[in-house]
Design brief:
By secondary structure, this protein is an all-alpha fold. Helices cover 29% and strands 0% of the residues.
């Protein structure tokens, strides 16, 4: 017991004289003046900002143009305005396929052997067994 008590006393003495390795710089305050005016990003290819959001949006694209086309959703527009037969055949163009099963045999999915299935199921352990 005496040996443990001295060890605890030694550790307590070391802990009292310990100085932390981290140094705090003190309270932070925001700068007195901050420029919030819009500026061009340093990596922007253009040297100027757009005139307005509307002009920017008219040129922007995300998966196609962002402009609104009202005739598509109307009853007489492109969607639902014509019968399916008048739109043409549903055959893919030459060299294109709708499904992988239509491809030549060398491009179709290969069947898995039982050894490959076992290797996947065991995480590869069956290969070394």
């Amino acid at each position: 017991m005496a040996m443990k008590a001295t060890r605890f006393l030694q550790q307590a003495a070391v802990a009292q004289h310990r100085t932390p390795m981290i140094h705090f710089l003190g309270k932070r305050e925001p700068p007195k003046s901050v420029d919030h005016s819009p500026q061009v990003h340093p990596e922007s290819p253009a040297d100027n900002l757009p005139d307005s959001f509307v002009s920017y949006r008219s040129k922007a694209q995300q998966h196609g143009p962002l402009t609104h086309r009202p005739n598509i959703v109307s009853a007489g527009g492109a969607i639902g305005g014509h019968s399916g037969g008048s739109l043409g055949p549903i055959e893919p163009p030459k060299g294109q396929y709708f499904d992988r099963s239509e491809l030549p045999a060398r491009f179709q999915r290969m069947t898995w052997s039982q050894a490959e299935i076992d290797a996947v199921d065991t995480g590869g352990a069956s290969v070394f067994a």
